[in-house]
Write a structure and sequence with these properties.
By secondary structure, the protein is α/β, with parallel strands linked by helices. Helix content is 42%, strand content 13%. It contains 19 helices and 15 strands. α14 links the parallel β14 and β15. α8 runs antiparallel to α15 and α15 packs across α19. The protein is elongated and about 80 Å long.
Length: 503
C-alpha cells in the first residue's frame, strides 16, 4: 500500500511540544493539517507557534517565503473532535495515560471514515492495549516520533497485536514520504530504542553505585573511548532524571521485574530530591553560569616503559601493538604457550589485559585491565582497572604506556567488565535478544539506535566486530561475578555464538 496522499488531511490531537513537532512535519510534507486540543484555545496558540517556527526557517534560508505561505494556508485549529471527520490520518500526542488515550480513540472511531489510519505517538504504553477497546483495531498503529520531531529522522512504526499489515505498511510509507527514516517494531515494552538503550544508563548507574568511578569519569570514558556523543549522566540530565527513570521503571515493570531491566536506587534518590537535571538546575551535575563542572579523573604523567612483551592475541585491541611500536616502544614476544585472552607483560611483570568480564583480582598474577574502545587508534582516553596485587610501579608503567600513545588515562576501581566493555556487551545482548524475539530485524535495530540515540555504531554491527562467542564468554564471566541473572547471555546471543564457533 502506498503512502497517504498529500491531499489527504492529517489531524494531530494534543498540541504540546510533540504534537506541534509532528504537525509541522506533516505540514511541510504537503498535507492539510488540523489541530485539536482539549484545552480551549490551545490549538490556536499551537498553530501560531508553528507559524513562528516556519518564519524562523524562512529567516535562516531553510524555507522559501512561498512555501511558508502555502504551509500557513494548510493549518487549521479546530474546536472539536467532530471537525476531524474526513481526515486520512489522526495522530495523538496526549497524556501518557492509558484510559485517556483509549477514551480518545473510542470517540475518534465514531467520527472518522473507515479507511482513516489511527496512530498513537506513545513512547511507553502498549499499542495493543490502547487499541484494545476499539471495534476495528486493525487500522491502529504506533507512530513514535523522537523529540524534536522536525529535526530527528527516526520514527518507530509499531504494530500492535491486532494491527493489519496494510495499516502498518501505509504508516511506514507515509513516514518515509515525510522525509523520515521509519523502522518497524513489534509492540514490546520500550519498542526498539527505549528497550535496547537501557544498559547504556543502567551500567553507568551501577558502576557509580559500586563506587568504581564518579559520573564525570564514566561519562568521559564512554565519550572518549567508547565513541558515544554524550555520557549517560549528562544525557539523563538533559532528558530529565524523572523522565528517564520513569521509562526505565515502566520497561522493568512491563517485563515483570526482569533483573536485566532493574532500575537504579541512586537515580530514584535523585528524582526524590527533585534534582532532575538541566531543567531544575541540578542533577548529576550543577547547571548555571557559575556552576562548576566536575572533571574526570585523569592520571598524572608517567614514564612509558622502554619495552613490553606480547603474550597471545589482544583481540579486539590488536591495533595497540602497532601503536606501541610507532611510539618507539619495543614489543617482544612472550615465552611459553600463547594465552587467550592475551596480555601485554610490563617490565615489572604485571599483566596488562583487555577487559574480559572477570574481576582483575580473579587472576593470581598482578593484572591491570584496560577498557574497550570503539577505535583504539582514535580514542583519546582509556580506563585502567588494577587488581589489588598491582603495585604503584606497575600502574605507572601501564599509565605511561597509554600516555605515550596519546591517550589520557583514567584509573578506576577493579570492577568486572569495566565501563565501555560491559555497556557494549549488554547492548549487543539486548539487541540480539530483540532480533531473536522478532521485535525488529537487525538492520532496523542498528538504524534505530544510530538515529534515535546517536550511537557511534549499531549494536548488531558492534557484535559482529567483537564476535558473539566472545561477548557470550564475557557475559558468562560477569554472570559469575553477579549471579542474579542480570548478565546471563540471552538465548539469541548463545545461539549466535554457537553458529559462529562452528561456521
Amino acid at each position: 500500500m502506498t503512502a497517504l496522499e498529500f491531499s489527504s488531511p492529517v489531524a494531530v490531537v494534543g498540541t504540546g511540544t510533540m504534537g506541534q513537532g509532528i504537525a509541522q512535519v506533516a505540514l511541510l510534507a504537503g498535507h492539510p493539517v488540523r489541530l485539536y486540543d482539549a484545552v480551549e484555545g490551545q490549538a490556536t496558540t499551537a498553530a501560531a507557534a508553528i507559524g513562528a517556527r516556519l518564519d524562523r526557517l524562512v529567516e535562516k534560508g531553510r524555507l522559501t517565503a512561498d512555501d511558508r505561505s502555502a504551509a500557513g494556508s494548510r493549518i487549521t485549529p479546530v474546536d472539536g473532535l467532530a471537525d476531524l471527520a474526513g481526515c486520512g490520518l489522526v495522530i495523538e500526542a496526549v497524556l501518557e495515560q492509558l484510559p485517556v488515550k483509549q477514551s480518545l480513540f473510542e470517540e475518534l472511531e465514531k467520527i472518522v471514515d473507515e479507511d482513516c489510519l489511527l496512530a498513537t505517538n506513545t513512547s511507553s504504553l502498549s499499542v495493543t492495549a490502547i487499541a484494545g477497546t476499539l471495534g476495528k483495531p486493525g487500522r491502529f498503529v504506533g507512530l513514535h516520533f523522537f523529540n524534536p520531531a522536525p529535526l530527528l529522522p527516526l520514527v518507530e512504526v509499531v504494530s500492535g497485536s491486532a494491527t493489519d499489515e496494510t495499516a502498518a505498511t501505509r504508516a511506514y510509507e507515509t513516514a518515509r514520504a515525510w522525509g523520515k527514516t521509519p523502522v518497524r517494531s513489534a509492540d514490546t515494552p520500550g519498542f526498539i530504542v527505549n528497550r535496547i538503550a537501557r544498559p547504556f544508563y543502567a551500567e553507568a548507574l551501577r558502576l557509580h553505585e559500586e563506587r568504581a568511578a564518579d559520573p564525570a569519569t564514566i561519562d568521559a570514558v564512554l565519550r572518549e573511548s567508547g565513541g558515544f556523543k554524550m555520557g549517560p549522566f549528562e544525557l539523563t540530565d538533559l532528558i530529565g532524571q524523572d523522565v528517564n527513570e520513569a521509562v526505565t521503571r515502566s520497561v522493568w515493570e512491563s517485563f515483570f521485574q526482569d533483573p536485566k531491566f532493574t532500575p537504579s536506587l541512586a537515580q530514584r534518590r535523585l528524582v526524590e530530591s527533585r534534582r532532575l537535571g538541566r531543567k531544575s538546575g541540578q542533577g548529576w551535575y550543577a547547571y548555571g553560569d557559575d556552576a562548576p563542572r566536575p572533571e574526570p579523573h585523569t592520571a598524572a604523567p608517567a614514564k612509558a616503559p622502554e619495552s613490553v612483551a606480547l603474550h597471545g592475541d589482544l583481540f579486539p585491541a590488536d591495533a595497540l601493538v602497532d601503536l606501541i611500536r610507532k611510539a618507539g616502544i619495543r614489543v617482544g614476544r612472550g615465552k611459553g604457550v600463547p594465552s587467550y585472552p592475551g596480555f601485554i607483560e610490563l617490565p615489572s611483570g604485571a599483566q596488562l589485559a583487555p577487559a574480559d568480564g572477570s574481576a582483575a583480582d580473579a587472576s593470581a598474577e598482578p593484572t591491570i585491565h584496560f577498557d574497550l574502545a570503539l577505535d583504539y587508534r582514535s580514542a583519546t582516553r582509556i580506563a585502567l582497572a588494577p587488581s589489588s596485587r598491582v603495585d604503584e610501579q606497575a600502574l605507572k608503567e601501564a599509565t605511561g604506556l597509554f600516555q605515550a600513545l596519546g591517550k589520557k588515562v583514567s584509573v578506576i576501581g577493579h570492577t568486572p567488565g569495566m565501563i565501555v566493555a560491559r555497556t557494549v556487551w549488554m547492548l549487543i545482548d539486548f539487541a540480539l535478544d530483540a532480533v531473536g524475539r522478532e521485535v525488529a530485524d537487525a538492520e532496523d535495530i542498528d538504524t534505530a539506535m544510530r538515529l534515535g540515540v546517536n550511537y557511534p555504531l549499531g549494536p548488531i554491527e558492534w557484535g559482529r566486530r567483537l564476535t558473539a562467542y566472545r561477548v557470550a564468554e564475557a557475559l558468562d564471566l560477569l554472570n559469575d561475578e553477579y549471579p542474579n541473572g542480570r548478565y546471563a547471555p540471552s538465548q539469541a546471543l548463545r545461539r549466535q555464538a554457537v553458529r559462529e564457533e562452528y561456521s
